[in-house]
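Protein 1 of 2
SEQ + STRUCT:
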Amino acid sequence: MKKVLIVDDSISVARQLQKIIAGSGAYEVVGHAKNGAEAIKMNQAEDPEIICMDMNMPVMDGLTALRTISVMDKEVKVVMVTSLGGVGDKFTEALKNGAKNVISKPFEAGKVLDILGAL
């Protein structure tokens, strides 16, 4: 079972994503961070294989955390979560900084699992 860390400042969004991911039976959700700074600490503590990280959060946004995590941990696969529909500069910047893909809100369970399965 692959370990997944969910990073989102919205508890309801994180719960929704956790339900989809853990419900598949192929993944174990090892934690929930509320911002990028927590994500960096939890990545070191929990050593997940996959991080699903929101782009827009208080304290430290997802792109800033992605840059740090991709330098510190070459193995982890980061998927950005966005309500921007995955378009624009932030999406391109995320991919340049090491993100493997983008999951759009609102979530479609099949699409989320397809993206994670392709990693």
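Protein 2 of 2
SEQ + STRUCT:
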Amino acid sequence: MMPLFSGPCPVCGEKELLADPVLWPDLINAWQLSEDETAYINRQQGLHCKSCHNNLRAMGLSTAILREIGFYGTLKQFCESFSDIRILEINTAGNLTSFFKSLPSHKLIEYPQFDMLNLDIESESFDLVIHSDTLEHVPNPERALSECRRVLRKNGKCIFTVPIIVDRMTRSRVGLAPSYHGQSGVPADDQVVCSEFGADIWQTVLKAGFCSCEIFSFEYPAALVLIARK
């Protein structure tokens, strides 16, 4: 069995991690989560760095990005290197944005100014597109990923996370009672869940036109990252 991640933080190098539960009963019931599923999603979202406050999900995303770039150090060190890699970040990816913004060719776009289903961005403009726990809120995830692919240069990559229930298949929440992420008791239109992703998430990536989809395991099953190659 894969060992649990215990630090140091791959984003900033801090050695101390903290843990807080983040799921609430209504969301657990809406997702029909088992005790084990509740535990690993709480770890995914609630285990975080004491210093930069990035959670396990964001740490996994950071590690996958650094691995694909071929940089052996922390994300903080990479962003201080002033690399000219062109990165498009769609919605803030945890607290990673505070580091990415120091890169000269980083661009952050956010909903609702930018519609992920129809990005107002020139084709083949970026080397890397990243987003974190955003796709599940988009009505047509395949279309959204195809837009990510369109704005990537040749051999570019889209690296992203979604909440994955690993022992299930993906299901749409169309016709089901609304389920919201964010905070308990605070429903918001941009937090409503459209898709609950499962083990077949790779199909959505390939249907969007990417030539390959890798699932990078920072910690199984709590921290999985999708790497889609154009």
